[in-house]
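Hi Y.,

Following your request, here is the sequence exactly as I used it, all 614 residues.
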Amino acid sequence: MARKEILERLSALRTAMREKGIDYYMIPTGDFHNSEYVSDYFKVREYFCGFTGSAGTLLVWQDGAGLWTDGRYFIQAGKELEGTTVELFRAQDEGVPTIEEFLKEHMAQGQVLGFDGRVLSARQGMKYENALAKIGVSVAYEEDLSEEIWKDRPPFPAGKVTLLEEALAGESVEEKLRKTFEKVEKEGADSLLLTKLDDLMWLFNIRGCDVECNPVAMSYAVLEREKTVLFLQSKALDGPVREYLGKKGVQIREYGEIVRYLTEEMSCGRGTLADPRYCSYTLYKTLERRQKPVEKDNPTELLKAVKNPVELANMEQIYLKDSVAVTKFIYWLKTSIGRRQEDGTASSEITEITAADYLEGLRRQIPEFVGLSFPTIAGYGPNAAMMHYEATPQDHAVLKPEGMLLVDSGGQYLGGTTDVTRTIVLGEITEEQKAHYTAVAAGMLQMSAARWLYGCTGRNLDILARQPVWNRSLDYKCGTGHGVGYFLNVHEGPQSLRWRYTEGAGETVLEAGMDVTNEPGIYIEGSHGIRIENVMVAENDAKNEYGQFMHFKTLTWVPLDMEAIDEKQMTEEQRMLLYGYQRKVYEKLSPYLTEEEREWLKRETKADNTFFLS
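Below is the corresponding structure, written out as tokens. Let me know if you'd prefer a different format.
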């Protein structure tokens, strides 16, 4: 994007700020539901600074601007902000102030912080409101200053809503509503305002297409003792969906009626449960005018995270099919890069983009495939050091028979959502790269073999994956794992694997039926990036006088690249885990491969190694 455009947009924004009496204006990455990924309509932060990452907050004032983002995006943001006058603030780095700290230091009594309260969570909005009130600063949250500036703004999303059959969902809407309302009442409330999109899709057994790669529809719901009201855009609904929901006792209202309903129609009893992490600041203030909301986590989040037996069975089948596709892709890469045709001329070049397209084509051959679960990240060489790198037609690399390609990808299927990363050797690599790959592989394998007593959270287990990396005085600036939806968002909570203690951040006990990714990595700017990612499901193990023991069941069966592993740098236990995993990969995938692919996989996994049979 031309830097001149960004400068002009920032100038127009500052003019609007002066006219509205706003001294600092904050633009988060979010929609009206505090979603992680948003439709093009909501990419206001990107419009005003050019940074395309999925996480970050822009702060603009009259003589400056700053972007706060996390370690996944430092390299990318540094490049995309060049020439925009927007300063990069590397969140959580030593000496870098938080936005709140920055505002307290720079704002003066009587000044105003502005933001669109519809795209800021209640928790964030209240934090700024309370902290800044102590220094005499007020907030203005009813202005979206981009409306008059962004003339060619994309339309508000309104894709078709579809049903997820109960045979696939594994549970009826009535049963989900009953379980949800039981938890609402236990929290001392008698109604629930639900704003989180993937929770809404799960609860009503519907899916949408309003956010790229996430099968969600713009919606709200209010659950009361005597009625359930679902707010959807009427143009997104057809007869069968209306009829289905009607039979479940669900009333349908227009999406835009939510504020009026909360203000005029909803009954006031013991209180309305509203999750401040996802409920917008605007809706929270709307509720607060009647009575203070009951601030608790959405009960649907935990119910959704624990997959039911039907979901787990379908996921296992889908992950096997997806693993076959990814393995076929690796075979194609390794046998195509640098290959010459019979006449001696070089084969057509393969780029990061064409490689991603080829993998998507393999997934499309799977009958249950619906779409990608996120845009494929295919980063070659130094590009792989950017965790969420995305190649473009204007800026991408050509693959060569040297170095490594990192591919992070996944699919949306009727029966599951996949997320898998492999770093693939294309030719000669350095000893440092091999040592780094070995450490990452060892960490992934150790986490896969975890065994623990019930009651642990992801913070208790993260060290298993991170220790081989920390042993080299290295780290990766993200968590080790996140939950994955069931034909829903690829990032799902509340479960996670991460080491850092963050004040105010909740931790969730790992329950049987929760899935989680396992994705340690090493990222060296200007050189290489390595990530290996599998998805696992927590299961109950032995139960005795010490309590309920648990373990992970692996869903992803894609080979590790033995060309990148130095077994001498692994412990005996790590080597055993490596050989065991590779053997299972061969056993599970070989029936679905061609003879040539099968022979390659046997060599790749060393499945004919006598060590396997000992």
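The mean pLDDT is 94.

Thanks again,
Q.
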